[in-house]
From TrEMBL:
Keywords: Amino-acid biosynthesis, Arginine biosynthesis, Lyase, Signal. One of its GO terms (biological process) is L-arginine biosynthetic process via ornithine. It comes from Bradyrhizobium macuxiense. This is argininosuccinate lyase. Pfam families: Lyase_1. Residues 122-332 form the Fumarate lyase N-terminal domain.
Length: 535
């Protein structure tokens, strides 16, 4: 033990000789706030207040929690590898356990700095316990904490996405036959169904889920054990540290582990949130445009809006606006992550923790939950949606297609006829239901002449013309994979539900693996404690 006391003393002298003006471990503090303030005064990384979190477990697993978890894993690994003898391991374990337990007391401290945490431990059990830091650095310890924080917040975001996707699928199931206009360039284009629309956006969010599960292979890798960036003379078992801390493997290159992968992992994960935010913003804007209509066909329930202070007729869609604001914030914060990482040299702190510092994922989850509340409150007026379609010429493209398919009228001729019919009808407020049939036949004859085609009668009866110009006929007669026809949207709904269940299982599997790793670490660490302490 005397030999290890010499090592510990040497470590302490080295720290003191190289960082006299900024040894955070020697700055006296009696409370968590005071500890963090003292660390912050000298520029060390310490939170100035409570950081936003993505869940209760995320809030509980702060920097203090994770640095002590790393200390537990380090103690287990050092003993398993025989780097230090059993009595030293027990001493370290006793100090780590005390540091954790004292924080639970009313006057306990939860500092965020490595040396402040070590000071609590060594004040209790002696300087010999500081050998726990052999081969380690703030660099790999903080990199490991941030990697764990990023993976946990990404999983929380994935869980929120699952909830929104389930909501969209439930709403789609109720609206597989709800006709609505599909828009391009802000103008009615073709008839689809609201179920078809919702399935499209659910599938886009499912791709974000795919991006998360694919990124997980890179996010869930451990940097722990590389020290600053070059390893050390100590034979630390990095793979065992990764296993104890719930990682699937290690970031192999020691410089990459601390100094490079923080760039791309944060950029990749936050880009997924940014991707989802873009689509959420579009969906909210699609809904919000309805409120500019005198008679919308999509509205929030009355109890989910708020009234004007001056205009009694108004029902303001605050839920929609709040979801869109949150989406815009996520896009902005994602850009901020990129800007913080831009144009700095490797090793700078600028790019190592911006996702947490900026609170991007808590905001992303707020966005997803806000969108979920919107779709929970949506009321669909199916009759009004159909009326919206029938008041315009949205089914016209299919008339040109049908003239080609059934009556061999060249497509460009049929298209020209349909376009000419719309140009004639709109100024007169005529619709497919009200345009005189003799006008239709006259316009067809003029179009044939324009294209130097032989004269022929319009190849449909009036009843046939009215039927094929109805939105119902177009939707039900659509062919091919992925269309709005009921049989196809029903099939896509079942497939989407299957994918949702698979994604739920994937998330549950990752959480289960992390929980099992925690339990294994606790058992291995408890075995190192002196028997009176372990009982």
């Amino acid at each position: 033990m005397k030999y290890f006391a010499c090592i510990a003393g040497g470590v302490s002298l080295l720290i003191a000789s190289t960082a006299l003006a900024a040894d955070t471990g020697q700055l006296p503090c009696k409370t968590t706030q005071e500890c963090n303030e003292n660390a912050a005064k000298v520029g060390a990384n310490a939170p100035s207040g409570t950081l936003p979190s993505t869940s209760k477990s995320d809030a509980a697993e702060d920097q203090f929690y994770w640095l002590n978890k790393i200390n537990k894993a380090s103690t287990v690994m050092l003993m398993e590898e025989g780097i230090f003898p059993k009595d030293v391991g027990q001493l370290i374990a006793k100090g780590v356990e005390y540091t954790i337990s004292q924080a639970k007391q009313p006057d306990g401290k939860r500092p965020s700095d490595v040396l402040q945490i070590e000071k609590i431990m060594t004040d209790k059990v002696g300087e010999e316990a500081s050998v726990i830091h052999a081969g380690r650095s703030r660099q790999d310890m903080y990199a490991t904490y941030r990697a764990a924080k990023l993976r946990n917040q990404t999983l929380d975001f994935a869980e929120a996405l699952l909830g929104l996707r389930a909501r969209l699928l439930a709403k789609a199931a109720d609206n597989l036959d709800t006709l609505m206009p599909g828009y391009t360039n802000g103008v009615q284009a073709v008839p689809i169904t609201y179920g078809h629309y919702l399935l499209a956006y659910e599938e886009s969010l499912e791709r974000d889920q795919q991006r998360i599960s694919d990124a997980w292979r890179r996010l869930n890798l451990s940097p722990m054990g590389v020290g600053v960036m070059s390893g050390s003379i100590w034979p630390l078992n990095r793979a065992r540290l990764a296993q104890l801390l719930g990682f699937d493997g290690i970031v192999e290159n020691s410089m990459d582990a601390n100094q490079v992968i923080p760039f791309d992992n944060q950029l990749e994960a936050t880009a997924i949130a940014n991707s989802a935010a873009i689509r959420v913003g579009v969906m909210m804007q699609d809904l919000h445009t309805q409120y500019a209509e005198v008679r919308p066909w999509l509205l929030l329930q009355e109890g989910s809006t708020y009234t004007s202070s001056a205009m009694p007729q108004k029902r303001n869609p605050g839920l929609i606006m709040q979801a869109r604001i949150a989406a815009s914030d996520v896009v902005g914060l994602s850009d901020a992550v990129s800007i913080r990482a831009h144009n700095v040299t490797s090793g700078m702190v600028d790019y190592k923790f911006e996702f947490e510092d900026l609170g991007l994922f808590p905001r992303a989850i707020k966005m997803v939950n806000a969108a979920d509340r919107v779709f929970d409150a949506i009321m669909v007026d199916k009759a009004r949606a159909k009326e919206e379609l029938e008041s315009d010429w949205t089914s016209t493209m299919n008339l040109a297609e049908l003239l080609l398919q059934t009556h061999q009228i060249p497509f460009r001729v049929g298209h020209g006829f349909a376009s000419q019919m719309v140009s004639y009808a709109r100024p007169l407020n005529l619709t497919p239901k009200t345009i005189p049939f003799n006008t239709v036949t006259d316009l067809f004859a003029k179009t044939l002449a324009k294209f130097n085609m032989p004269a022929q009668a319009f190849p449909m009866s009036e009843a046939e013309f009215r039927e094929v110009m109805s939105p119902e006929w177009i939707v039900t007669h659509t062919k091919g994979v992925g269309g709005p026809q009921p049989a196809e949207t029903g099939r896509m709904l079942k497939e989407a539900e299957r994918r949702l269940d698979a994604d739920k299982a994937w998330l549950a599997g990752q959480r289960d693996k992390l929980a099992k790793a925690d339990a294994a670490l606790d058992r291995a660490f408890a075995a190192l404690l002196p028997q009176d302490k372990a009982q």
